[in-house]
Amino acid sequence: MAYDSERERKRYAEDAEYRARRSATNRASRKRNRATVNARYRKRYANDPNGLQALAHALVVKAGQGDVQALKEVFDRAGGRTLPAPAHSAPRQLTLSWKNPPPASKKAATKSRAGNSSPPTSGSTRTTKAAAAPARQ
Asked: Can you give the pTM of this predicted structure?
């Protein structure tokens, strides 16, 4: 069995025509079975309330591992879509606070590029002016 898998991987890597055929077959299969697979997932998650939690947990884990698409999904779901800014909006004040701040550095107060001292101490907040967020497409 391992020999066949190894041989398949080698052929896929080296033979462009074989790779194109396999890709076309996979795309056709996904297109043909998309409705069935989606219905199966809808049924599974409708009947299992913990299933959605497991799915959300898996998405957050992937985002934590650096998967860019997972990060986009997590932030879209957590923060919602941004609203378009009014035509003449003034900057607004934004306050950030950390539940578990990073450990204090050895340097007492190093300046970051923005001019704020870093890192914050336990229970501290950092206030900065933020421009209105641009609308997403």
From this structure: 0.34
